[in-house]
Amino acid sequence: MAVDIPVIVAISAFAAGVLVSAGILTVRTLKNKKKASQQNYSTSFVFSGNLKQTTLLDAIQFLEIGRRDGILHIFSGRRKGYLTFVKGKVVDAFYRNEIGRDAIFQMLELNEGDFYFEPKVIVQPRLMSDTMMDIAFEWDARKNGAFQE
């Protein structure tokens, strides 16, 4: 039984092409499955705590460093306040009928209560022009009696 060499070469080339195509299809299928599984499982940033264990200023600094977008909710007794963050910057604050820096001053005084951060995209203009650092320095100066208006 004589086998023609060109036929063997042609069959080998055809088989190699089939194997390469099968390998490419397998890799594409695995990549698509990986993308689909990543889309099905989403994780969200969860940050919460107690003001006895973590000061509000520490929580704010953590969110600033992480450049987070969302709302930090603060609960103390029956009172509720919030700080709104855009890219880690505080753009709005409310607590006990106060807004802005005065609301932040009152919240920084809290020794008891809980907080949690709600990550979300914020589309509101910046209502506060002061940086959190400036507010913290002024709060500290007021607390220590060194503040002069």
Compact overview of the structure:
The protein has 149 residues and is an alpha+beta fold. 45% of the residues lie in helices and 23% in strands. The chain contains four helices and six strands; from the N terminus they run H-E-H-E-E-E-E-H-E-H.
Write a structural description.
By secondary structure, the chain is α+β, with helices and mostly antiparallel strands. It has 2 domains: 1-42; 47-143, no CATH class. It is built from 4 helices and 6 strands, in the order αβαββββαβα. It has helices spanning 5-40, 56-65, 100-108, 132-143; strands at residues 47-50, 70-76, 79-86, 89-95, 98-99, 114-119. Strands 1-6-2-3-4-5 form a 6-stranded antiparallel beta sheet. It is elongated and about 100 Å long. The mean pLDDT is 80.
How would you describe this structure in keywords?
6 strands, 4 helices, six-stranded antiparallel beta sheet, 149 residues, elongated, single chain, alpha+beta, 23% strand
Order of helices and strands: HEHEEEEHEH
- Label the overall shape: elongated
Main beta sheet strand tally, sense and closure: 6 strands, antiparallel
**First-to-last CA distance:** 108 Å
According to DSSP, the number of beta strands is: 6
Mean pLDDT: 80
Poorly predicted residue ranges: none
**Structural class by sheet pairing and helices:** alpha+beta
Helix content: 40-55%
State the helix count.
4
- The quaternary state of the protein chains shown equals single chain
